[in-house]
Structure formats: C-alpha cells, structure tokens
Amino acid sequence: MSGTGRTDDGRGRLGSMLSGLAVAVGCVLFLGGFAWAAVVYRPYTVPTESMTPTVNAGDRVLAQRVDGSEVRRGDVVVFTDQAWGDMPMVKRVVGIGGDKIACCEKGGLLTVNGIPVEEPYLRTTDPASGNDFTAEVPKGKLFLLGDDRRVSLDSRVHLEDRGQGSVPRSAVTARVDAVAWPLGAMIERPKAFAALPGGVSSAGPLKLQLGAVAVGVVLILAGAVYGPVAARTTRSKRNKQRQAATGVR
After folding, report:
1. Whole-angstrom distance, CA of residue 182 vs CA of residue 175
2. pLDDT for 213-244, tens place per residue?
3. Residues marked as catalytic
C-alpha cells in the first residue's frame, strides 16, 4: 500500500509540474503572439468602396508595416500622397518602376509590359478599365488601381500629372494582409503577377502569429483542466482501493 501511495504522489507531482509548464508555455505563446502582431501590424479602417470586393468600405484590416522597397505587383497597400489628397488610401499595386501599363487589350485585360494579366479579384467581369489608357511607371514609383474600377479614383485619374499617376515607393506605409472585421479573411497574393519578373511578395507572419495564439490558448486550457481532472481521478482510485481493502463493493 505504501508503495502505491508513493507512486501516486510521484505521478501527482509530475502531473502538477507538466500542468504548470503547459500553462506557462501557453501564456508565453499567447502573449507573445499578440505582442509580435502588435509590433508588425497595425489596424486600419478602409475609407471607400474602391477596393470592393477584396475589402469593403468600413472593413477593419490588418496592414503589415513595410518599407516601400518591399512592395511587389499585386500587393494591396496603404499609402499617403499629397497629390491624392494627403490622406491614407488603400489601392492595389499593378505596376512598378520601369513597367508599361496599358488597358485594355482585345480580351479586356490589363497588360503589364505587353503581358495580359488575369485579375479575378475585380468586382465585375467588365473590361479592366472603362477607359483605355497607357502609362510608363518611373523608377522608384508605383502604379495603383482599385479593385472596383467603376468607382475607384486611382492612378488613372492622375495620368496627366507628373509621373503619369504613379506614387513614390516611400509613400507606402503598410501592406494589407487580412480583413480582421467583419470577414476575417486573408488577402492572398495574385497568381497572375507571380509570372512577371520580381514575382510577388512573401506572405506576412500573421498566420504564424495566429497559430502561436491558438496553441497558447489550447495549452492554457489543457493545463488548467488537468488539475481538477487529475484530482478527481486520484480520489476515485483511492476510494476503489479502500473498498477493495475493506471488502466493500
């Protein structure tokens, strides 16, 4: 009997240690994931419908803080440019320095350096622009369009400006990675731009951060639940041992 008691106590101590460790690691992952996300991302409310259906007016998005040099074609970015009203705006990058952007070719597609680009993210199946245009993007600048081309006031509106509607890379402050509210959806990099020189940007760490938070929650709950369950199991085992020792059934 005494040997059994020592074994139970040992298992109890080991279980308590593992339970405490699970809670501690869970807290680190949970808080660390949130802290990491707070450093890398900033929330932003989309002001207009120009990026529908990718993001809608009033959506709360998570935008990764990036330098303009990191931006690639296909990215949805937050930028501020005095010529555009000197307020934060959200548009999609379709051209970078050195590109020749044109619309629309025979199939109604946008072309980048003569290569037609499929744009499944557009709101309608109409041609990629209601009005034909061409533009050459100066080095160090970006050409930006909205996903709802019918209502978007984008680079096409500024074609007569210096730089033909492009904005400096330095104007970009963040890249939108996900809609936090109300959809809760990730914004994927467009495959069509991946075939062009330079490809598309790498996905941000948001999924990894959310994974750390989720694992942290599981570990905290598992560690917290273990104690009561283990205590109940031990009491039940001891009661059965007493009943067996006294012959009670």
Report:
1. 19
2. 999 999 999 888 876 666 566 655 666 656 56
3. 50, 91
